[in-house]
Amino acid sequence: MGKLRAKERREQRRLEIAHLRELPYSPAERYQHPPPPRRLPYRSLTLCLLLRWWSSETVAVVTGASRGIGYEISRQLAVQGLCVVLAARDLDRGCTAADGLRAEGLNVQFRKLDVTHSDSVQEFAKWIGDEYGGLDILVNNAGANFNTGANNSVEFAEEVIATNYLGTKLMIETMIPMMRPSPNGARILNTSSRLGRANGRRNRVGDVALREKLMNDDCLSEELIDGMVANFLRQVKEGTWASNGWPQVFTDYSISKLAVNAYTRLMSRKLANRPGDHKIYINCYCPGWVKTAMTGWEGNSTAEEGADTAVWAVLLPSQLVTSGKFFAERHEISF
Ligand SMILES: NC(=O)c1ccc[n+]([C@@H]2O[C@H](COP(=O)([O-])OP(=O)(O)OC[C@H]3O[C@@H](n4cnc5c(N)ncnc54)[C@H](OP(=O)(O)O)[C@@H]3O)[C@@H](O)[C@H]2O)c1
């Protein structure tokens, strides 16, 4: 019964989102469509439509974008008229993806980027500075996961943590100085997962003291987050991780996304006092369970649907934009 209700709720939500996604972004076109149902402010795309702040000069970078959700985020941002840098680590796949989008008339440029290699990230930062004078939007989408179904191997834990958490962190640290000043604020969006919730019902961190520290803004620090992932990786090496209260499902991946979530909240606080045009808003989101290579093509939604909340979140008008939040399906969810 519970499962049936959850399925019905998901379907209802899917239909609502599908309706929102049909709404045009230009105020002129808007009046040709029926008014949308009443919504909470974060969901109020109608308002967003009236408050379009970006232009063809707005530069958005999407990492890990040669396929899956990242490719779709790139496409949808370009469809909204932004200048998109589709960043991917594989030259051929990246070029092919960007060429395909350009063939549709979209303003998309490919640039090679491996988020786990400091040299690659530094080279990318220099290039974005030389080419565009910086960027306005960064979507940290690149991610790795080696488990599907009921598997829970930690064989690739180092790579998972290096890509999902350390790669995201490196990109943020390196790109912050490159974010262009703007009255609308620059935006960073980290791709996370509900599996990374510290208080998730089924996948929570068993160590209560650690969980409490992670959830308490006053205790949150880079040392705490880095220490947590280092501790986990040490236990993986020693073969002791299984009995230490880590999340039970896709453990390495869940810890990497838990770290991304905590780091998003931490950076939001660190960036909060930047003045006027130098503001940077940083949030994270979960795309849902999406049919991509990562899930072995299993899931509830398509890459197009999974990308939707990312595009919505980074395009929020300055009157609604916020920081340090976790989003899914165009609304705020708890950490
Ligand atoms: N699918 C889901 O259900 C789901 C749910 C929650 C969150 N997410 C998150 O959504 C994001 C996109 O995942 P997806 O489902 O679209 O999976 P995907 O199709 O496997 O895409 C992952 C992308 O990340 C790239 N990548 C991996 N390591 C990289 C690195 N070191 N440097 C640069 N790029 C790298 C991959 O590049 P290559 O092509 O070169 O391997 C690939 O393009 C990930 O962060 C994932 O954790 C997905």
Automatic annotation (TrEMBL):
Superkingdom as given in the UniProt entry: Eukaryota
One GO location term (cellular component): membrane
Keywords assigned by UniProt, alphabetized: NADP, Oxidoreductase
Pfam families the record matches: adh_short (PF00106)
Database matches in Gene3D superfamilies: NAD(P)-binding Rossmann-like Domain
Record's signal peptide: none
Xref: InterPro entries: NAD(P)-bd_dom_sf, SDR_fam
GO molecular function, one term: oxidoreductase activity
Family, similarity comment: Belongs to the short-chain dehydrogenases/reductases (SDR) family.
Identification of the protein by name: Uncharacterized protein
Originating species: Zingiber officinale
